[in-house]
Design a protein that fits this description.
Helices cover 52% and strands 7% of the residues. By secondary structure, the protein is α/β, with parallel strands linked by helices.
Amino acid sequence: MASAGRTQDREQPLLAVAAVARRLGVAPATLRTWDRRYGLGPSDHAAGAHRRYTAVDVDRLMVMRRLTAGGVAPADAAAAALDGDPSAVDQFFGAARTPKAVVEAALDADMQRLEGLLRIDGQDVIAWWTDLVVPAREQLALHTELDPPGQDADLLVQMAVCAAIRDRMTAVAAHPSGVVLLLSPPGEARPLLLHAVAAAVGGVDARMVSGPMSARHLVDLVMMTRARAVVTVADRRDADMSLVEALISERPDLPQFVLVPTEDFARVPTGPEVQRARSVAGLVHELRAALTVQDEEV
């Protein structure tokens, strides 16, 4: 007589290798390799038919897929998957998500593994940025590589970071006061940090400003979007602060938050609603506080 657990398994749809491969986003050959090397194969043995995967089999394979995508060695991932411990994923990820692992995945052009390593999940965004993303990119900048055309390790990291932030962000209802605008000074490329700031604030309709921007254009954009605040992040020394000055002149009541290199802190124009920040954490803290006050006043 079959056990209750086995009976329950048979009540679930039994899947062929191709169907399981599509569900997990891997090649059928990968599933066959996991079966042959690690014993993570289909357990249904119906007579006269190809072996099929049960729901329990698929759950194990999902653990295997998630761990290997996050940088865990296949043999260790398989052991955890076969063990059936639901906490194994979190335990492994705590050890596997290191700047060194991110660099290795980027240099190998392994986008799948890179996205696994750079997921935010339930982490604090600022800690994720400062402890993982920043040191990984700094270490990557020290490597001299001969990349084939179309391959750029740092660009892959940026793409994985943006994917992680998109996964973290949720739909935000329109606010009566409008949006939060985030931009870089004239002449600077938009830094990846702006995306992290938007994700760290959370629950805010934040928009990245890109492309050429004059003072007049920015003032018009603020009016059109009914901006709640404007965030300016400078990546370089001696950044052009003309847009900050223009908003002080035209909209002195509009909260502005400016993050610049420490050496340029004194160069940030002063105004009644201008907040200067020396760190990402400080910027996010001040922005959250200002938006909370606005929400209480609505």
